[in-house]
């Protein structure tokens, strides 16, 4: 998939004059501290003596202090956040991570652990001058058990590289997402990333067999077992899955890889209404059963703008909604029979208005590419407010027309797309330029709506820097208190990824 | 109105990583995903557009190969071809099937079916021969418009724009004629569901090369198939002077 940075650069020349000016104004996003009005907490400042200490353990080359070199590590790829860190550390081993944290903990220096920096809630970039610990050099594959499918690797491995590696051994990674070419497995685990095939292969709390993490004081927690079953005491690995680097830094991972499907087929359909999508989903579940691997939807605006902005080809004509159905199976003939009886039935019933179906890798890739490019394609139209929420499926799409009505012509587009099978919708609101008026119309409105139907304010993107003030819409105060107790226990000085996940108490 | 014959070949999908057999006799095809040769897809699209523009009355898709070639033919039918002919060539014979044989088969079928335009992809992405169109034209003694990036009907026949080194060449041919499709001739459509369903019911005739009186004994022997050389890893140099010195050392500047 496209690396977000490459994407922005690659599309600059194609923009017309006006957009180019807009792009220029985005070159340096506003400082997060100013934009979101955050006060610096009482951490120590980074001194030359600290830099020298880091250089003594990592060497000159793995301590970045040059302003231009540090810049990309301060900015998230949505360009909605910019931190003020002056130093980036690139450890190569768990021991180095441990030494760094132990030192920072003693000196009360705040740190920001960072993977591929593809997060969407500002969790992966510093807010003030937190020291960035980027894990990109911890990219070694340690072992692969072809019988159990257990892959053990360091946390800085890029997801797509791991997938390419395990495919050579007839396995696949249990998760797949648009950012796979840049995101790192450690970041995926720390944010409990979901992605396109969660419906089939489950989420990371199931796939991660074990992990190794470093606590704030430098203690290495070794839960790196690759067993499917291991009921020996508290399941501590789960604390590091989805805690966004606030409880520890994940350094190694054992993850279960499912078998590479021998037969893959992809269908792309036009559908009349969201109600029909839900009916089609139920029908796909019962007709396709165990081979169903993804069930995704996107509304008309999401697809037509993506196709236009990125100069892609929509395989079918204009329809109010689009659905993408994928199957993973072991026998092409068997899967083909199931799929064609499903398609014939639903063409006749009218749930599918038109569509295309293919098992050619190149064609499947082009169709997936449209779906995976939606997130990035709207960036060329201006500033994008992104929401990622879980809702009971019957309420899944309701919020999009509500928002359209609420925003009127203040927004250039409001789109909804996502993983219907998991009840997870992505809502993107595009405006020509970031403005607080639209923000105030969106927040907390969206979260209140989600809360009303007992949804989640963050389905797969996490809480990060952008959403702690909304976490209470999904978590009650006793739960939040227990989270704070855990934080206090594992990181008493609060040096790990501050300003993120947990809301301030005052 | 013309009747169009389109040649389609089943090849390893271009997104698949190719592996050479250990004995170097060819590449591994078992259990590997196959698709229609992309240039042939463009040829089918062009033929179907001719029919849609009422320049052609019928489109016949032809494929030479094992039983699975029928899947490729079904794809052509789903794209809009009217009927298909599968010339079954299996096993060892298929491994040594060469452009000359295919050209003879296509020429014979063209006469039998009374087609007056033959379109094939300019080359197949597996053997990269780029010979079938030219040989077919020779066998039929018809004019050829190969590497076509644009085909238009003119009073006396066809006007074909060809992509050649350094630019475009426009040629006029009389009909009947043989064409080969280049990459920019068109963008092939996706087969839509109703058409995929319809394609299952369209006629598909199976015949053998023997029925056509074509001798398939090989004229060329493949000596060995090798992997391309592995690119050597690069190295990081500390400064420009070292880079220049290294380039000089390697005789590059």
TrEMBL record, chain A:
<keyword id="KW-0285">Flavoprotein</keyword>
<comment type="subunit">
    <text>Homodimer.</text>
</comment>
<comment type="function">
    <text>Catalyzes the oxidation of D-2-hydroxyglutarate (D-2-HG) to alpha-ketoglutarate. Also catalyzes the oxidation of other D-2-hydroxyacids, such as D-malate (D-MAL) and D-lactate (D-LAC). Exhibits high activities towards D-2-HG and D-MAL but a very weak activity towards D-LAC.</text>
</comment>
<dbReference type="InterPro" id="IPR016169">
    <property type="entry name" value="FAD-bd_PCMH_sub2"/>
</dbReference>
<protein>
    <recommendedName>
        <fullName>D-2-hydroxyglutarate dehydrogenase, mitochondrial</fullName>
        <ecNumber>1.1.99.39</ecNumber>
    </recommendedName>
</protein>
<dbReference type="InterPro" id="IPR016167">
    <property type="entry name" value="FAD-bd_PCMH_sub1"/>
</dbReference>
<dbReference type="InterPro" id="IPR016164">
    <property type="entry name" value="FAD-linked_Oxase-like_C"/>
</dbReference>
<feature type="domain" description="FAD-binding PCMH-type">
    <location>
        <begin position="81"/>
        <end position="260"/>
    </location>
</feature>
<comment type="similarity">
    <text>Belongs to the FAD-binding oxidoreductase/transferase type 4 family.</text>
</comment>
<dbReference type="Pfam" id="PF01565">
    <property type="entry name" value="FAD_binding_4"/>
</dbReference>
<dbReference type="InterPro" id="IPR051264">
    <property type="entry name" value="FAD-oxidored/transferase_4"/>
</dbReference>
<dbReference type="InterPro" id="IPR016166">
    <property type="entry name" value="FAD-bd_PCMH"/>
</dbReference>
<dbReference type="InterPro" id="IPR006094">
    <property type="entry name" value="Oxid_FAD_bind_N"/>
</dbReference>
<dbReference type="Pfam" id="PF02913">
    <property type="entry name" value="FAD-oxidase_C"/>
</dbReference>
<dbReference type="InterPro" id="IPR016171">
    <property type="entry name" value="Vanillyl_alc_oxidase_C-sub2"/>
</dbReference>
<dbReference type="InterPro" id="IPR004113">
    <property type="entry name" value="FAD-bd_oxidored_4_C"/>
</dbReference>
<dbReference type="InterPro" id="IPR036318">
    <property type="entry name" value="FAD-bd_PCMH-like_sf"/>
</dbReference>
<keyword id="KW-0576">Peroxisome</keyword>
<keyword id="KW-0560">Oxidoreductase</keyword>
<keyword id="KW-0274">FAD</keyword>
Automatic annotation (TrEMBL), chain B:
<dbReference type="InterPro" id="IPR012255">
    <property type="entry name" value="ETF_b"/>
</dbReference>
<comment type="similarity">
    <text>Belongs to the ETF beta-subunit/FixA family.</text>
</comment>
<protein>
    <recommendedName>
        <fullName>Electron transfer flavoprotein subunit beta</fullName>
    </recommendedName>
</protein>
<comment type="function">
    <text>The electron transfer flavoprotein serves as a specific electron acceptor for several dehydrogenases, including five acyl-CoA dehydrogenases, glutaryl-CoA and sarcosine dehydrogenase. It transfers the electrons to the main mitochondrial respiratory chain via ETF-ubiquinone oxidoreductase (ETF dehydrogenase).</text>
</comment>
<comment type="subunit">
    <text>Heterodimer of an alpha and a beta subunit.</text>
</comment>
<keyword id="KW-0249">Electron transport</keyword>
<dbReference type="InterPro" id="IPR014729">
    <property type="entry name" value="Rossmann-like_a/b/a_fold"/>
</dbReference>
<dbReference type="Pfam" id="PF01012">
    <property type="entry name" value="ETF"/>
</dbReference>
<keyword id="KW-0496">Mitochondrion</keyword>
<comment type="subunit">
    <text>Heterodimer composed of ETFA and ETFB. Identified in a complex that contains ETFA, ETFB and ETFRF1. Interacts with ACADM.</text>
</comment>
<keyword id="KW-0813">Transport</keyword>
<dbReference type="InterPro" id="IPR033948">
    <property type="entry name" value="ETF_beta_N"/>
</dbReference>
<comment type="function">
    <text>Heterodimeric electron transfer flavoprotein that accepts electrons from several mitochondrial dehydrogenases, including acyl-CoA dehydrogenases, glutaryl-CoA and sarcosine dehydrogenase. It transfers the electrons to the main mitochondrial respiratory chain via ETF-ubiquinone oxidoreductase. Required for normal mitochondrial fatty acid oxidation and normal amino acid metabolism. ETFB binds an AMP molecule that probably has a purely structural role.</text>
</comment>
<feature type="domain" description="Electron transfer flavoprotein alpha/beta-subunit N-terminal">
    <location>
        <begin position="24"/>
        <end position="216"/>
    </location>
</feature>
<dbReference type="InterPro" id="IPR000049">
    <property type="entry name" value="ET-Flavoprotein_bsu_CS"/>
</dbReference>
<dbReference type="InterPro" id="IPR014730">
    <property type="entry name" value="ETF_a/b_N"/>
</dbReference>
């Amino acid at each position: 998939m496209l690396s977000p940075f490459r994407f922005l650069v690659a599309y600059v020349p194609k923009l017309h004059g006006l957009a180019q000016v807009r792009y220029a104004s985005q070159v340096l996003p506003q400082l997060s501290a100013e934009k979101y009005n955050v006060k610096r907490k009482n951490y120590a400042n980074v001194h030359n003596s600290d830099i020298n200490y880091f250089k003594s353990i990592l060497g000159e080359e793995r301590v970045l202090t040059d302003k231009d070199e540090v810049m990309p590590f301060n900015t998230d790829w949505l360009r909605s956040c910019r931190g003020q860190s002056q130093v980036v550390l690139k450890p190569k081993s768990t021991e180095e991570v441990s030494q760094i944290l132990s030192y920072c903990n003693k000196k009360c220096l705040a740190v920001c652990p960072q993977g591929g920096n593809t997060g969407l809630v500002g969790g992966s970039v510093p807010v003030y001058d937190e020291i960035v610990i980027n894990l990109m050099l911890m990219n070694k594959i340690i072992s692969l058990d072809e019988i159990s499918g257990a892959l053990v690797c360091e946390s800085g491995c890029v997801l797509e590289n791991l997938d390419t590696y395990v495919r050579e051994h007839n396995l696949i990674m249990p998760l797949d997402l648009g950012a796979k070419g840049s995101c790192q497995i450690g970041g995926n685990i720390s944010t409990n990333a979901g992605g396109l095939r969660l419906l089939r292969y489950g989420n990371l709390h199931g796939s991660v067999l074990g992990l190794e993490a470093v606590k704030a004081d430098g203690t290495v927690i070794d839960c790196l077992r690759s067993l499917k079953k291991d009921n020996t005491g508290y399941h501590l690995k789960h604390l590091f899955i989805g805690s966004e680097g606030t409880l520890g830094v994940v350094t190694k991972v054992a993850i279960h890889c499912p078998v590479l499907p021998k037969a893959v087929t992809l269908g792309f359909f036009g559908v009349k209404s969201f109600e029909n999508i839900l009916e089609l989903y139920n029908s796909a579940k019962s007709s396709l059963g165990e081979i169903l691997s993804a069930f995704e939807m996107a509304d008309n605006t999401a697809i037509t703008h993506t196709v236009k902005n990125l100069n892609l080809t929509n395989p079918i004509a204009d329809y109010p909604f689009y659905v993408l159905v994928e199957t993973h199976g072991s026998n092409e003939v068997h899967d083909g029979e199931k799929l064609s009886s499903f398609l014939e039935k639903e063409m006749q019933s009218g749930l599918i208005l038109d569509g295309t179906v293919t098992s050619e890798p190149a064609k499947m890739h082009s169709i997936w590419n449209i779906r995976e490019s939606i997130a990035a394609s709207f960036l060329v139209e201006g500033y994008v407010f992104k929401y990622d929420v879980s809702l009971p499926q019957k309420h899944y799409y309701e919020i999009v027309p509500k928002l359209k009505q609420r925003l009127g012509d203040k927004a250039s587009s409001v789109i909804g797309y996502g993983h219907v099978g998991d009840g997870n919708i992505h809502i993107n609101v595009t405006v020509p330029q970031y403005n607080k008026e639209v923000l105030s119309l969106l927040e907390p409105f969206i979260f209140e709506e989600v809360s009303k139907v007992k949804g989640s304010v963050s389905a797969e993107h996490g809480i990060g820097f952008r959403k702690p003030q909304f976490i209470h819409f999904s978590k009650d105060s006793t739960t939040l208190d227990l989270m704070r107790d855990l934080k206090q226990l594992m990181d008493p000085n609060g040096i790990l990824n501050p300003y993120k996940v947990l809301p301030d108490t005052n | 109105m013309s009747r169009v014959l389109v040649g389609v070949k089943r090849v390893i999908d271009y997104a698949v990583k190719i592996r050479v057999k250990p004995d170097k006799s060819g590449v591994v095809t078992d259990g590997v995903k196959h698709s229609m040769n992309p240039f042939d897809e463009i040829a089918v699209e062009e033929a179907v557009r001719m029919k849609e523009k009422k320049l052609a009355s019928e489109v016949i898709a032809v494929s030479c190969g094992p039983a699975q070639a029928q899947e490729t033919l079904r794809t052509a039918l789903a794209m809009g071809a009217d009927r298909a002919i599968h010339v079954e060539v299996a096993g060892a014979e298929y491994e040594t099937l060469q452009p000359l044989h295919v050209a003879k088969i296509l020429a014979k079928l063209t006469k039998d079916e009374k087609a007056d335009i033959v379109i094939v992809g300019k080359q197949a992405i597996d053997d990269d021969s780029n010979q079938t169109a030219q040989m077919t034209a020779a066998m039929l003694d018809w004019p050829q418009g190969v590497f076509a990036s644009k085909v238009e009907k003119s009073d006396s026949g066809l006007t074909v724009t060809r992509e050649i080194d350094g630019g475009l060449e426009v040629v006029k041919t009389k009909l009947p004629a043989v064409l080969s499709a280049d990459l920019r001739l068109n963008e092939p459509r996706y087969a839509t569901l109703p058409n995929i369903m319809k394609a299952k019911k369209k006629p598909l005739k199976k015949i053998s090369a023997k029925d056509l009186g074509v001798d398939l004994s090989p004229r060329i022997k493949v000596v060995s198939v090798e992997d391309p050389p592995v690119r050597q890893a690069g190295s990081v140099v500390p400064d420009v002077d070292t880079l220049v010195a290294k380039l000089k050392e390697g005789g590059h500047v």
